Amino acid sequence: MHGCGNDYVYIDCTENEIKDESAAAIKVSDRHFGIGGDGMILIKKSDIADFEMVMFNADGSRGAMCGNGIRCVAKFVYDKGLCSKTSLAIESMGAVKYIDLTVENKKAVCAKVDMGKPNLKAREIPVLSENEKAINEKICVDGKEYKMTCVSMGNPHAVIFIDKSPREIEIEKIGPKFENNPVFPDRTNTEFVKVIDRKNLEMRVWERGSGETLACGTGACATAVAAIINGFCDNDVTVHLLGGDLRISWSGNENESVFMTGPAVTVFEGEIEL
User: What are phi and psi of 5, to 5 degrees?
Assistant: First the structure.
């Protein structure tokens, strides 16, 4: 399944289990010797929500949250008849997100997700900074100075605003240098963003543990938050990614949730031996 091209292999683990989940993620994510994807997402039963999402990156590392992934989980459980509700609660690493599905011809096609409050506290993101919040802060990467605004949406993001289209940058070269920069103790996801106007942002993303992906839901949310707090855009904005568009809404109040709306698509179904 994919959300704006951010694709994962989804496995129903409500009745079964996988012994070595990390190894399985590496195997199925390989685009040449496996199924291929940005990672693997397991769907499990939950004691605190309707279902639990267990997300792994392509390198086998565990991820805390995936905005595109959680929309697809909601579609999966609805389309498969595991749940008849169109408003669901889904847990990921102990955090519960709330999703409203749009259904057409008895299939979920789109979802709006309450992604929770953004966290701007540098030490909690985490990012090493002399300030309480890393907003429009200088960072030197590969001998060049950039300005970053750091946001956590359950996972760390460094949003870099640039003057040219993100399509023009050599993300495969600069992305890993941001991801593994020592100012990010847990590594980071990095968004390279051009402000088109007050309602539109163009974004390209380098995800920790996966490399470049066609879309990142939490990254789109972090990008919108960063743009709003820097005064670059309005409270409702469309983020244009390589794989499609996500609509993000945030009041600008750090105590209020960010809302994300976007598609969820099933590509194919099959079986694999793990």
Answer: 85, -5
Helix (H, G, I), strand (E, B) or coil at 124: helix
C-alpha of 56 from chain center: 12
According to DSSP, residue 29 is labeled H
- Residue 63 φ then ψ, to 5°: -110, 145
**pTM above threshold 0.90:** yes
Whole-angstrom distance, CA of residue 234 vs CA of residue 254: 15
d(CA 115, CA 96): 9
State the sign of the Cα–Cα–Cα–Cα dihedral 126, 132, 133, 135: negative
Distance CA 207, CA 253 (A): 26
Residue 191: exposure state from Cβ atoms within 10 A (0-12, 13-18, ≥19): buried
Of 139, 190, 193, the residue nearest 166 (C-alpha): 193
Structure tokens at 158: 């460094």
Percentage of the chain exceeding pLDDT 70: 100
What is the rounded distance in angstroms from the CA atom of residue 271 to the CA atom of residue 7?
17
Cα-only R_g, the chain:
18
Q: Tell the burial category of 217 from Cβ atoms under 10 Å away from its Cβ (0-12, 13-18, 19+).
A: buried
- Check residue 23 and give its pLDDT: 98
Rounded Cα distance, 107 and 1, in Å: 14
Residues 177/182/185/188 CA torsion (nearest 10 deg): -20
DSSP β-ladder status, 51-57 and 87-92: parallel
> pLDDT of 84-138, one tens digit each?
999 999 999 999 999 999 999 999 999 999 999 999 999 999 999 999 999 999 9
Residues that are catalytic: 66, 216
